[in-house]
Amino acid sequence: MNFRAGLRTMIGASEPAAPPPRSPIDDFWYESAPTRSGPIRVAADTVIQIPEVYDTLSVLMQSVAMLPLPIYRRLDDGGKRREPRHPLADILHHRPNATQTAYEFRAQMTWDLLLHRNAFAEIKDGPRGPIDSLTRLDPERIDVQFKTQSDGSVDHVYDYHQDDGRKRRLLPEQVFHLRAPPLISNNLLGRSLIQDGRRTFARALAIQEYVTEHFENDATPTSVITTAAPFKTDEQAATFRTRWAKIFRDARNKGLPAVLDGTTSFNVVQKDHAKAQVMEAYKEVALQCIRWWRMPPHKVGMLDKATFSNIEQQALEFVTDTLMPWLVAWEQAISRDLIIGKDMFFAEHNVGGLLRGDLKSRYEAYAIARNWGWLSVNDIRSLENQNPIAEGDVYLQPLNMVPAGTQYAERAAFAAYVDRERALTEAIEQYRAPRLLAQSATAPPTAAARCLAGVDDVEFQDENASAAADVAPESQETAQ
Questions:
Q1: 78-82 long-range Cβ contacts below 8 angstroms, 24+ apart
Q2: Of residues 248 and 424, which shows the higher confidence score?
Q3: Which end of the chain is more exposed for a tag (fewer CB within 10 A), N or C?
Q4: Contact assessment for residue 75 and residue 346, using Cβ atoms and an 8 Å cutoff
Q5: Using CA atoms, how far apart are residues 205 and 49, in angstroms rounded to an integer?
Q6: How far is CA 144 from the centre of its chain?
Q7: Do 155 and 146 form a contact (C-beta atoms < 8 A)?
Q8: How would residue 398 be classed by pLDDT, with cut points 50, 70 and 90?
Q9: What is the pLDDT of residues 187-226, one digit of tens each?
Q10: Other CB atoms within 10 Å distance of the CB of residue 47
């Protein structure tokens, strides 16, 4: 027993727990030392201190977690039907474990996936079946171990390092693993995004640290103090500088005037932040940071190049280009690790709520879909989050769009024939009315009405000529 162990025994102290072993791919081995004046440390806890990065992760995490994720059954006709009583539906939509809601669990798993490109959850059996609960595992505490079998195949297990330093081994069927490319380690792990974007994140952190130190120093510019006589030793110069800084950097001495003798001068070294373009540089670096997630700038409050005319289109692009890949990663991982009957059941997010436009646009789209027969009243009410009504599942079919030769087509043709005959009869009666004949000299009927009445244009012209000849003598007598 050495001296330290004996001293711990005398005072009743326990042996400190050994730190958990680190994986060769852990970010710890690629980080700089966390010194204030040294290189910038880029890690998970520092990257999220960049506001644009934190906002990007929050928007994506919340968007994924709030979407409905129902379980569907595949139908023989190619359709699908929701299965709300499926055991996995209750886990993904209500209670994945004893302490978390479905929103909390899916949000935290998405956060891990976005930041580390890996997210893990332990699968436990229970009253609800082989998959009774999903408990999130910290991705920074998991190592993947590989073992090559005699036939050349490679098996893997997951080693999870617990708080007490002990290691717990989990088999692949005990772990729900979300991962995103690019993949490493036999295509079983996603490569850390922090590692890929290290330089970009370091630039953003460096600008933040520069601005923070500037204002922590009360925005006081750098100064040079000149003395008539040089200091005899470096210690004297250091002591003078320390005493000066202690007086004038103390918040309690803010505004206190400095008193110098005649042989000492104080010169300020001005910093031109406009020429340094600090804010412009930070905006550009912030844009580079959010590009790692293909995040539209307007979603994180960067509206420099956004207009009211393109915001709606950018919102649609956010769903299709930014959010959809992560939704597909969730759905396919659920199918691989959690669903037993993959040919019968599947999980799918409902993104209809994110793609809905304004009220007028939605109602116009519903009217088109209703009139052309691919949406019923109850379908529309379901999209608007309203309860179904009786006899609301009827799908309309335009008469002119039914298949030729069917009973509906014959009815449509007969109805069209009746409409044409009725229109022709009404036109003939209108043309032969006494009132129209009396006004024929000044307001002749239209060509369409003459055609419908069966009157030849030549005959009509002869009648007009005769009427004009009869009227001519009367007009001459009146003039005389």
A1: 80/346, 80/348
A2: 424
A3: C
A4: no
A5: 8
A6: 30
A7: yes
A8: confident
A9: 899 999 999 999 999 999 998 888 887 776 665 656 777 7
A10: 23
End-to-end Cα distance, the chain = 151
Looking at residue 458, what is its pLDDT?
45
Q: Which two tokens stand for residue 391?
A: 């006899």
Question: How much is the average pLDDT of 305-325?
Answer: 80
Please report the pLDDT score of residue 7 as a whole number. 43
Of the two residues 165 and 430, the one the predictor is more confident about is 165
Q: Is the pLDDT of residue 257 over 80?
A: no
Rg of the chain's alpha carbons, rounded to an integer?
40
Mean per-residue pLDDT, 312-320: 83
* Two structure tokens written together for 453: 């009445």
Q: Which of residues 443 and 215 earns the better pLDDT score? A: 215
Q: 116 with 74: CB under 8 angstroms?
A: no
* Total length of the chain: 480
pLDDT for residue 25: 45
What is the rounded distance in angstroms from the CA atom of residue 49 to the CA atom of residue 40?
13
Query: Which residue type is seen at 442?
Result: T
Burial 407-422 (b: 16+ CB within 10 A, else e): eeeeebeeeeeeeeee
